[in-house]
Amino acid sequence: MTDHPLPFRDPRLSFAARADDLLGRLTLDERIAMLHQFAPAVERLGIGPFRTGQEALHGVAWMGGATVFPQAVGLGATWNEDLVRRVGEAVGDEVRAKRAQDERVGLNVWAPTVNLLRHPLWGRGEEGYSEDPALTSATAVAYTRGLRGDDPRYWRTAPVLKHWLAHNNETDRDTASSSVRPRVLHEYDLRAFRDAVRAGAVAGVMPAYNLVNGRPNHVSPLLERHLRTWTSGPLVVCSDAGAPSNLVDSEHYFDTHEEATAASLKAGVDSFTDHGQDSSVMTGRVRGALERGLIDENDIDTAVRRLLTMRLALGEFDPDLDPYAATAAFDTSGHRALAQEAAEQAVVLLKNDGLLPLAPGDGRTVAVVGLLADACKLDWYSGTLLHRSTPLDGLRARYGAENVLFAEGADRVRLKCADGWLRVPGNPSATTGARGAEGALDPALLAGRTDLPPLVCDPVATELALVDWGNGVLTFRTDEGLYLSVADDGYVRASADEPGGWVVQETFRREEVEGHAGRHRLVHIGTGGYVSVAADGVKVAVDGEKISAAGATVFETETVEHGEDAVARVAAAADTVVVVAGNDPHINGRETEDRTTLALPAQQDRLWRAAHAANPRTVLVLTSAYPYAVTDAAADLPALVWTAHGGQAAGTALARVLAGDVSPAGRLPQTWYASDADLPGLFDYDVIGSRQTYLYFDGTPLFPFGHGLGYSRFGYSDLDARLDGDLLRVALTVTNEGAVAADEVAQLYARAVPGEEGGADLPHRELVGHRRVHLAPGAAERLDFAVPVEELGHWSVAHGRWSVEPGTYEILAGGSSADIRLTAAVTVGGEPSGPRPVLRHGLEAADYDEQRGTVILDRTKRDGDAVAPCSATEPGELRFRDCDFGDGAGTVTVTASGEGAVVVAADGQEAEVLLTSTGGPYAFHAVQGVFGARGVGELRVTLRGPVRLARLDFTPAGGTA
């Protein structure tokens, strides 16, 4: 007889058995309620409420103070899985510790983001790890293992990977469709998720807002076809916020919310994040779908069972057995040290002509200048800082405050209007105690405060620091460090410690007044309203209504001092200059907002040029969430450094690297291009056809993938590569040939030898292994790699499978994708796949080898792909290589929808098949034409008009295949 009256509380049973027992005890209404993000308690069974979703990308986010680690892209730049795993453990511990104090903190953490950094203008690039699927997946495995914990039964937290799938644009993100052909799908986008899921430390996945091949990710058949085949355990799929409603409201993919909800549930979505904490809307839709027969109770039970199993694994029902239940590790000395270590390892030395390291010495002065010189910027997924170190703080501590000069470089301005000058009324209570002894932010200084007096216009001016962050986006800040911000009542106040919030309320834009040089209106970007001076204060709205241009106040800007003049002055007085430039992660590139250019904002460009003109010993430190095209700086300056926003210890870490206490060994996790001209369109997801990332880019990057320098030098020797069954075993020796202890990141790449299998559309090289090692001067280490032979392969569209073709493959080892020191060759045996057997299997339209002017769309709302011209007036073209027509085809059958023509050509033969619309885009029908191609050759297909081609089938001339 059990001591536990209810089997679901019996820890001796499997989680599956316990979940089934509990499921059977829940009423239908209770089960439906569990499908919402905020699942209510079931008091009659003693079950508490549960919430899916706790942001934990690089620390506990949105729940107050926490240890803030470097941004995810910075963790990717460490190329160090051991470090990233320890960061994951620390974050998981802090989630647990905060959960014990605040029940709002959830144990189902929505992290990490494994979307690949395909395009450097993507606004959320700061959230990803790398443009490379292998590096991204390895980093994600490390982080999720840390979050999950080592206990074989219970999970510290339950990580959810974001965002499935092919999501790299914020522009039109809930309505844009990513056209992803099978090779890109299998070789690129799926791989980042696959290996992390296979590693067994992932509890779930979140679909992205966008559509893929015309079908929303929240109803993607790939969730069941691929995702859930990678693990034997239950995998929870949590919708993104508001995405279930988007299926009807913005995407118009379904006519009713009941249809959309049913389709999502059947596709594999288990938890619906919609309408905040109000679950009634979504549960009502589930009930409606059930009543209409669109789903049955089994569909509901399947999802609830997965959710219950996750809750069991988190120890919810076994608090006495859960090894993580009593975790109290929060803001520990170990976590603070780890934050510094991570920040140090994330620093990438891009260029160094001998200026660095800059060892402190008697009489040496350092000028620290730039808009980020005294900043410790957070992003949308950061926690609140408990500790804070800016570059200025770090350099003062390392070099001595008396040896450090400072100039921010913001323009000092006054704004004049018809009635006088813009003035910030005195408000001592708003400015005292802005930062504590360790730099902690005062929580009282928040945007949105309405208890402070608004700005006025009178004879006394307030001098403001003006920063142009690029693209005409301006911020204004007082000498007390408070940004001009707009509250819900529409008044402008100096009330924000930093720009931030889902809608940033601290940014403005000038609008020149036509015919009046030097005069302008101010537009508040957050509301779109004009700034106006009224008797009761400066505002952008009246009774909730935006002020029109006619009602806007016209201003003139008087520049008291240009920022570059202040920078030049202190630069000339110092031994060496450190210019700190970059971005504010809440401005010009973040969730909901893509960038428009790789260029460094003009104001910051002027600052480094002014510093360098005054002092040639100038280092440019780029602290940013993404790459810049700084070609002039790379050519002119003696030293160039990049680091992502490094969290709470960023300044200390940077100072230690610049001083030589730490030899930098961060490596670029994505290509830095030389100009915007090197980039494809933001919406072009075909990395192969448009030659994106280091895998395919044919040009010369500013800095290549994997690039990074240090203060020592390393030798590579004795590369050995051999096949051992299904593994490629590679070994090499790395030796520290320099005079200082340092880390090196050994990188291993592979590629098909030119002329062998596949030709130009295979990667130039592909990362298959890497290792970060620390070596004392003169020390050497033998590094061993075991690479699955399948990693040498590619997705064969000719045969619909992963294929490693026989032939010679080259193994390349070195310090970056462009710094190859050693090569070796291996020969893979076997039978070649051969040409496409088109007479037997036909051709799926999306399985092309090349395309021009086409897009992949959905064949049905549930499954399948079709190809259409991008324009109804311009033809699209598909090319299929090595099609085997044997002794000759007799006919071609075109399966398509819409109205237009499909022209098929090969072996000097051509067939034009005309299509007449017989319904909507999903009304596919088959039309046959005479087509007599013979032998093996290329097939060309031209699409004209609004037609969707699903597939082509061929019959042999004799009538049998």
TrEMBL record:
InterPro entries recorded: Actin-crosslinking (IPR008999), BXL (IPR044993), Fn3-like (IPR026891), GH (IPR017853), Glyco_hydro_3_C (IPR002772), Glyco_hydro_3_C_sf (IPR036881), Glyco_hydro_3_N (IPR001764), Glyco_hydro_3_N_sf (IPR036962)
Record keywords: Hydrolase, Signal
Fibronectin type III-like domain residues: 744-817
GO molecular function per UniProt: hydrolase activity
KW Iron-sulfur (keyword) present: no
Family: Belongs to the glycosyl hydrolase 3 family.
Name recorded for this polypeptide: Glycoside hydrolase family 3 C-terminal domain-containing protein
Species for this entry: Streptomyces halstedii
